[in-house]
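Morning, I've got a small favour to ask if you have a moment. It would help a lot if you went through both lines with me. I owe you a coffee for this, so here goes:
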Amino acid sequence: MPRLQVPRLAPLADDEMDAETRALLGATSGEIRRGPILNIFRTLAHHPKLLKRWLVFGNHVLAKSTLSPRERELAILRIGWRCGSEYEWGQHVVIGRMSGLSDDEIRRVAAGPDADGWSGIDAAILRAVDELHDDSFLSDASWNALTAQWSNEQVIDFIFAVGQYTLVSMALNSLGVQLDAGVEGFRGTAT
């Protein structure tokens, strides 16, 4: 999949955003709280109303989901990989490490559910992501594998996480959002 080398929409600088968007993203008078504002947010700031509403849903998927952080990150990394979203992959390698994934596990996400070393639930997560990506549907085998371990809420959170990060990957790829400083993207990932 081709990767745009320049953004189609340049990330907005603090002074190019309205006051409400700056406050929403944690930037005031050019000062940024809690670290730099990521390129995804600076790019989506071109559409402040969408950004504001999308952040509510994204916050549920990333911070309030019933999935464990490790399982959520397995799913997000796999869908980012399958969608060819280098930005998504790179950001979630960082988050995945903080969520307990080893570098070996992160590399194996790219190889998929049949790679050696996955537990039953890990392989089921990766396989289910592939099915949602390819067919927009979970097979009975994947449904049964997930529901044997998870509650109904967890399965629903999983489906919505994969859908959310499919959407995000499409936006990142199409808008040409560039990697943030210090994020490696696909470099170093064995396929």
Q: What stands out?
A: The first strand starts at residue 27 and ends at 28. The CA atoms of residues 107 and 190 lie 6 Å apart.
